[in-house]
Amino acid sequence: MSFKIKSYEKPKLKNPILIEGLPGMGNVGKIAVDFMIEHMQAKKFIEISSHNFPNSVFVNEKNLIELPKIAMYYKNTKDNSIMFLAGDVQPTDEKSCYAFCEEILDVVEKYKAIEVITLGGIGLPENPKKPAVYKTGNDRKLIDKYKAKQVSTSLYGFVGPIIGVSGVLLGLSAERKIPAISFLAETFGHPNHLGVKGAREILDVLNKNLNLKLNLKELDVEILGIEDDAELEKDFLKKIKQFPLQRKDTTYIG
Description:
Elements: E1 4-7, E2 17-21, H1 28-39, E3 43-49, E4 58-59, E5 65-66, E6 70-76, E7 81-87, H2 94-110, E8 115-124, E9 133-137, H3 140-145, E10 151-152, H4 165-175, E11 180-188, H5 196-210, H6 217-246
């Protein structure tokens, strides 16, 4: 078995654009795409399962297990139809990643998509206060088309290889002559960190360029909550470190 594709419907799409956001550094792309799917009320039209996905199951809200799946959603807007690629996993190795991306690009060609957008994060040793966003791709015209003051094209020597679906989709799109671009936001390179601030910066760029009419205030509230939690944790750890210096008597572990 390679990939099992289940179709829910065959939507009528107008000049569709694919936006990919699967798990990765800080889950920046996943957070951004999941936010768009929820707030634009996008509809699922394809579900993909495979033995090439991680050998695990997830426990859902009903306390039942589910095999990992990746899905495609769509939303028709005034100017374009937007297709989203979302899920909780990526293919487990290089060969399956390439095969998976070819399957996705078959769908892209089937619906005559005009461009592909991939989203991801750039890991830093510290959490950036204002994450910078970078763009690269396989087509200079497409890169120049997406304009925003906070987006830089100076990646060479700073960003290493773009690993996983976010990178391979760009390369394989070039082979099929499909214009593709990637937006990468800075985030804290810790495995447990959620790059909500980086996702917010990418969403702002997409919102303005694609006229998605997203209200990003909900993310702003979440960012404030995360920052408050981080400050509390920082203060707590600081107090813990000082505690042995302040107490000369017996200390306890537990």
